[in-house]
Amino acid sequence: MTTSFTPLTVAIGDLVPHSANVRSNSPETYDLENIAHLKASIAVLGLLQPLLVQMLDGKYAVLAGGRRHAALKELIADKASKGFTAKTKVDCRLVPEECDVTTALSLAENITQAPMNAIDEFEAFARMMEVDGQTPETIAKTFGTTVAAVKGRLRYGLIHPDIRAAARAKVITLDTMKAFAEHPSQEAQREVFEALTKDGGYLQAYTVRQALKSRGVQVSDDIGAFVREDYEARGGAVAADLLEEHSVLEDAALVETILLEKLGAAAEEARIKLRFAWADAMVRYDYATMADYGRVYPGPVEPDETAQKRIDEITAELEKLQLEMEDEGLEDGAYNALYERVDALEEEARDLQEAYSAEDLARSGVIASWSGGQVTLHVGLVRPEDTVKKEGARGSSASPTGEEAPDAGEITYPASLAEDLKTERAMALGAAMALHPEATLDLTLFKLVSDVLASGMSVTQAIKIDARKEYRSHAKMDEIDETSLEQVAAAHEALDLSWLDDARAPADQFAAFRALEAGEKAKLVAYATASTTQSCFTRDRQRDSLMHAFEIEIMPDIRAHWTPNAALFNRFKKAWLLKILGEDLGLAQEAVTLASSSKKEIVAFCDKLFAEPFATLTDAQRAAVAAWCPPMMQTAGAACDEAEPTAEAPQPDSEVAQAA
After folding, report:
1. Between the CA of residue 13 and those of 16, 103, 210, what are the distances in Å?
2. Summary mean pLDDT of the chain
3. Residue 637 — φ and ψ, nearest 5°?
4. Of 189, 342, 387, 660, which is the most buried if we count CB atoms within 10 A?
């Protein structure tokens, strides 16, 4: 049986909901956010599909089209929408009053309409731009959506037809098809598509994106934006997208060339400014490659009269800025500007009070790399070939430990190992400080007071008293000896943290802190200061007499906080291990016996020896094992920038030398 519905127009104000509408029990369907797109479309294009209505109690009840009805009512209520009032008439179709299948009619309209294919939608948006001449802004207004959402659909609608056809046929997934939008050139898309599907393999979105990356750099990418002006000036090809931010600089090699040139210029500028010996550039800073590089750091210097005058000026300006920043009525923008000025002044003051030594400048340099969307400078780097003295060149570059160029059996410390040993020593020092709270409290308070009240020269660079925990970087953190870690953990367990309650206001926390016993405060300050120890070998008495004396007081023997283990010995050469056993520990016979063993066996022997000295050791050997560590790690050892004292090399006819 076929039922015909009479067309008619009805004033919006005469329309009411119908109880048989299948959506009538889902009021959330008509929430403003759910009909916003429909409202925008009707406002621009009008009502494209008539409402299905039936006369109930003298009113036109909307049997099908409840969301359109809700959108029409919202347009009437919206004063900004012109042309829609209660008297505005819309197209409807009238269902006879005697019809007994009203629910079926409502359901049929809602479920028999197949949802629009996503690809059809993408292509329709693209046609609106290419054929109808609309912009993303006008399209967004028509459909009540965001410009960003429209741009996303446009990108997918402009993908190569063959790729869209493959998605329609379900040869590739919709997500995989979308990945091709990473490059605006349909030719590039087609070439990548054919290359990836020629062997009949399963195509993935990730694979597509990776392949397209080799076809160029988007202008919206941080590197693309950085090099674009120079790239276009050199005639580099640009694959233009209808949406500018998706255009691509197609010549990836030219992009990298320009980037390296700009990085090199930045590195050279820094080299000249800081007076380093060399400058270099790399696109990405390769930490694995750079592991063998050393690094030098500026040390404290006494400012001359001109520098001191500038420091005094900076100090005065900082005090003025601090007062300005305390103004509670200060706007965020003004406060941030003052904050940046303070940072710049403090950095300038540090530069006036620190400097690289002439020797370090003569062998070190700077590398510029691209990181986080900007040029990053890595300063004070020492190339591997410059970390060891050149034969016959007295006074030239030294190794990280300051040793003479070694012979084949001499123990040397590669830069990567030296840096890790510095970290381990800093951890041991931190443990010692945490275990000596009174002395550490005195040190902390002395540094805070003297840094502020003295002439401006920091009393030591060995600790950072700036309320910031020092990050520990180590190549094999999970394999190191845990003695210092356990000692620090025990010190933490002993802290009274009752005052540190996030639920309290800072003022209340401070009041609780002040109420602590003096001894508890000392433990807290000592623990916090211990967390700031800097990676370094033994302190130079001349450069930092304060920390040199302090370390001797609280850590006369690093072995109370650190024990050599397999992780360390694995990084030594076999000849070094035999030398340590035979000469440093007095175990010459054991060294001779182990000379024919594998390095793995020697490492295991050393690990066991240091973990629990053998009962067969003499008193002298036991004492040597209990005290041994790399010379530059011991508190009373030689200074960092001086040659390490080493035992005389064994004569060729000695048992140890022959065995090695």
Report:
1. 8, 24, 57
2. 78
3. -75, -170
4. 189
